[in-house]
Amino acid sequence: MGQLAGAELFTVVPEGSITTPKGFTAGGLHSGLKKSTRHDLGAIICSVPAAAAGVYTLNAFQAAPIKVTKQSIASSGLLRAVVVNSGNANACTGEQGEQDAFQMRNHFAEVFAVPEEQVAVASTGVIGELLKMDKLIGGIDQLPTHLGDDRNAAEQFCQAILTTDLVQKMICVQVEIDGRAVHIAGAAKGSGMIAPNMATMLGFVTTDAKIEGTVLETLLRQVTDLSFNMITVDGDTSTNDMLVAMASGLAENTSLTEAHPDLAKFVAGLRHVCEHLAKGIARDGEGATKLVEVQVQGAVSDEAAQAIAKTIVGSSLVKSAMFGADANWGRIIAAIGRAGQPVQVDTVDIALGSIQTLQQSKPVVFDEEAALEYLKGDTIIIHVDLHMADGAAKAWGCDLTYDYVRINAAYRT
Amino acid sequence: MGQLAGAELFTVVPEGSITTPKGFTAGGLHSGLKKSTRHDLGAIICSVPAAAAGVYTLNAFQAAPIKVTKQSIASSGLLRAVVVNSGNANACTGEQGEQDAFQMRNHFAEVFAVPEEQVAVASTGVIGELLKMDKLIGGIDQLPTHLGDDRNAAEQFCQAILTTDLVQKMICVQVEIDGRAVHIAGAAKGSGMIAPNMATMLGFVTTDAKIEGTVLETLLRQVTDLSFNMITVDGDTSTNDMLVAMASGLAENTSLTEAHPDLAKFVAGLRHVCEHLAKGIARDGEGATKLVEVQVQGAVSDEAAQAIAKTIVGSSLVKSAMFGADANWGRIIAAIGRAGQPVQVDTVDIALGSIQTLQQSKPVVFDEEAALEYLKGDTIIIHVDLHMADGAAKAWGCDLTYDYVRINAAYRT
């Protein structure tokens, strides 16, 4: 899987949403888990058993919903629905938390008359507090009248999964497989505790492609490594991260396998969906005023490039400089140097957008005014060329701002 | 080397300084490298060739003064002096930067009539700009009239090595070796770009102990791993970090070796000096309002405990919560879980000071008012017990504040 998604292989569907792929409905509502009146409970439902795959947090303390969802997907590889709450992560809540997550799943299955092991659950919010089960159960009971297959219904779902996110993140692309229109869509939430290796991030992919769950899982992992695992907001990794994909198969293509001639189109579409959501999470990081993209090339391997790109985009000093629109490339080279990867000390180029600041490791006199103007923009691209070999990678993050501190100094209260 | 320095093995010298050990003079002045009128050039000089040792940054882009100092110490293991400037790091300055660092060393050697290979140089400040050599040379010419062997002279040196530090960091302890009083003292600067594995940190240790340079280096490395390498301000590691120790031998003890019966006293004293300076750097981190100490015990090994302690103290979310005086232990357990070390998910205790918040991985109902009161203090201790084995470690850091962002959004300009 090269560094460039094949843009010609798919088209973005204007106004497309997670309910655009055939078979999916979605919705969201306020159940009372959040103190405010914001939505806090949502679901995506498939009219048929969908081939399913999941990718999960690597944090050793995995929250209860992670265990339940893993068990559901493992049991048959199929999902009829995913139900999600925000406002409470149901993490570090012990046996009671696990019972609550199972009850969340089972009550939903009862209400919607689907097999309980075909329901995934996800939670996001505060760690260490028990779910208010009365609110949750009451909310699930109301969900059937809050579902729809239009964009509005999908947006209600997106609202329901937000915590400190400011904007919804959703996209739908179309690819042609066996001459048929296949849709791949996704929705995500992010915001804080976002780091490489699955962030505090919930992601949901719907598609009407016909594909085996095992193939879907392999592709999902590959694409995650180049998208969600290449973003960082603050270097923290949550206990609740989960990316779940459901494939209804209603596009009726011949089943996608490694050998399918149109597989590359599906992968390109899936990658675009995940990359779009990942960049959306980075741009909407807690307190962020801009998206920072780091492009590393010329490294000894893609893995080395990835490590370097992540180190730069995760550096508090680089992030602060981006907030201040300060072309402080010294902090960028310091980050390159501590990434633990092979570098040549005298062949490094650094540019901010089109403004070269370091060439062959020597400072370039550049137009500070032009740099200031560029860095004041809402998207900054940092280019690094190590001139060693062909390893390349992209990573995304955001600036470090007063608002990040404000939000996180007072989240729980 | 256990986790507890033997407090009974040394005494802190009130009003002691880096000029308290016999043979040392020091001083500092404003040469014009900084735009302000603050000191920016300092030196420590020994009246005899001192056994010397250095520990350096692991950043791949090591600044020019690092190369020069390494060469000096390697040539004979002896130093007569170290000369330091602030305001400019002389890093990423290519061949010219290296020539400048050598000229800084050699001009100093000429002025003070000492062998050039017995002079160490250190620089701290902005990366990527050439040193103003006329200012530097002029400053070195004035240094001889700015030296002294009293505390005031030592403080002038401390002033000269500061960048965004707010307070000087200096200490002196006394140990008894062969029945003789031996002094060990240190001065340091830190502030930003401070991370495990030697921070943007300059540290200078003086002692009148008689000790071989190679023994001194071994001890310095061991002690650094438990002090300077256990602090983090922002996870960044600079290009210029350097810790240099000079031992005049004028206390006239029998030379310290691994077999010397009083070696433990010297190690305890050296460790206290380094730990005191490291904590001082953490407390004085950019924008910090408090010192955060993390004590981990019950880990599978000291190394595992170190990794976990560093991950907690480096977490932006934990740091923000400490700034906000929010007893958000969920972020602490999330940090433990992503440290990449063995943990048992159901045996973790967490306490903030004496306030237990998690016991056997279960939330404890605690007095929020008391927790708020404790977290408003200027020193926070986070206790973690994993209940697995005997591995233990301490790490130090600070809170993440609006001022960190303010300082680093506008440093270069």
From TrEMBL, chains A, B:
Active site: T200
Pathway: Amino-acid biosynthesis; L-arginine biosynthesis; L-ornithine and N-acetyl-L-glutamate from L-glutamate and N(2)-acetyl-L-ornithine (cyclic): step 1/1; Amino-acid biosynthesis; L-arginine biosynthesis; N(2)-acetyl-L-ornithine from L-glutamate: step 1/4
One Pfam family recorded for the sequence: ArgJ
Residues of the site described as Cleavage: A199, T200
InterPro entries: Arg_biosynth_ArgJ (IPR002813), ArgJ-like_dom_sf (IPR016117), ArgJ_beta_C (IPR042195)
EC code(s) of this entry: 2.3.1.35, 2.3.1.1
Reactions the enzyme catalyzes: L-glutamate + acetyl-CoA = N-acetyl-L-glutamate + CoA + H(+); N(2)-acetyl-L-ornithine + L-glutamate = N-acetyl-L-glutamate + L-ornithine
Keyword match Cytoplasm: yes
GO molecular function: L-glutamate N-acetyltransferase activity, acting on acetyl-L-ornithine as donor
Site note Involved in the stabilization of negative charge on the oxyanion by the formation of the oxyanion hole, residues: T124, G125
Enzyme class: transferase
Task performed by this protein: Catalyzes two activities which are involved in the cyclic version of arginine biosynthesis: the synthesis of N-acetylglutamate from glutamate and acetyl-CoA as the acetyl donor, and of ornithine by transacetylation between N(2)-acetylornithine and glutamate.
Quaternary structure, from the entry: Heterotetramer of two alpha and two beta chains.
Protein name (record): Arginine biosynthesis bifunctional protein ArgJ
Organism: Paenibacillus yanchengensis
Species lineage: Bacteria, Bacillati, Bacillota, Bacilli, Bacillales
